[in-house]
Every structure is written in structure tokens, then in C-alpha cells.
Amino acid sequence: MQRSIFYAAKYHSNESYVIVERKKVSFTMEEINELYGLLNDLDSYPSQSLIAEPTKGDSRMIIQLIAWLGAGWTRTTTRSLQLYPHQLTTEANVWLLFIKKKIIPMCYDSTVPIEYMLLLYCKMAKQPFNLGYMMNEAFLGLMRNSKGAKP
């Protein structure tokens, strides 16, 4: 049985690339944006600060838009915020399905990590977001995952 490329890759998180079958595959923000024909100018993304460093005020604003009234955050063991899918509005759940199938793949459905909630918020609030930054951060997060779990 052939090993998954995900497990066979050698990661270089400091420089945002992996070695797969002896080939260097870069996933920098700039290269991802270029692949999708998006701008690399951070001034083009006014909501970048929300994504890069969300505050407590931001989290309240996010939850009011994407979740049902009365929904609350839970914290993971790594202190990251998350929600459960049943807490999301119908519209947010539809967008979440698109995000996890087409933008940043995710195999599990039991929780919704903060990274996905930030994308949901930007999409539903019609705020442009830096896709390259989000994908790069998601890939780096997977590389730092001590369990080596698939996305």
C-alpha cells in the first residue's frame, strides 16, 4: 500500500515549502495568490488585521453574524476558539461546506476552528480577504500539528 503524500512529505515550515517526491513545492502567500490570480498587496485586504490578529471584540462581531443567537465559543486545549456546526446559521453552514471542500480541506466535521470562522465571517460580511495568507496559515498549522493529522 502506497503511503499518502501528506505523510511522506518533508516539511520546511520556516520557508513555507514541502519536499514531495524530491520536488520542492512552495506554498507561500504570494505563490498561492498568484496561482488564483489574486493581489499580493496587503492594502487590498482591509480585513487582514481581523484575520491575522482577531480581538475579543472581533470574536463577538463574528459570532453575531455566523452563529445562532445564544451560541458561545469553546476553547481547545491549545486555547484556540471553536464552534460546533449546529451553532452556525444555515447560510454559514452552506458556506462552511464550500470552504472545507474547495478552499481549505478538512476531514472532520465535529468542530469549526477559528480559521474557518474567520473565512465565514469575511465571506458573509462581504469583506475581501487574503486567500493566500489564510491557506498558508492553514498549511503551517497542519505542519505544526503534533499528531500529523490530515486536514
Tally of DSSP helical segments: 7
- The strand count comes to 6
Question: H/E order of the elements?
Answer: HEEEHHHEEHEHH
Averaged pLDDT: 82
Oligomer: single chain
Q: What profile does the largest beta sheet have?
A: 3 strands, antiparallel
How many structural domains in the coordinates? 2
Helical percentage: 40-55%
Shape call: globular
Percent of residues in beta strands: 5-15%
Secondary structure class reads: alpha+beta
Q: What is the terminal-to-terminal distance? A: 21 Å
What does this structure look like?
With 151 residues, this protein is α+β, with helices and mostly antiparallel strands. It has two domains: 1-45 and 130-151, no CATH class; 52-129, no CATH class. Helix content is 44%, strand content 12%. The chain has seven helices and six strands. It has helices spanning 5-8, 29-35, 48-52, 56-66, 90-103, 114-124, 131-144, and strands at residues 10-12, 17-20, 23-26, 74-75, 81-83, 112-113. Strands 1-2-3 form a three-stranded antiparallel beta sheet. β2 and β3 (23-26) form a beta hairpin. α2 (29-35) packs across α7 (131-144) and α4 (56-66) packs across α6. The protein is globular, with a radius of gyration of 16 Å. The model has no long low-confidence stretch (mean pLDDT 82).
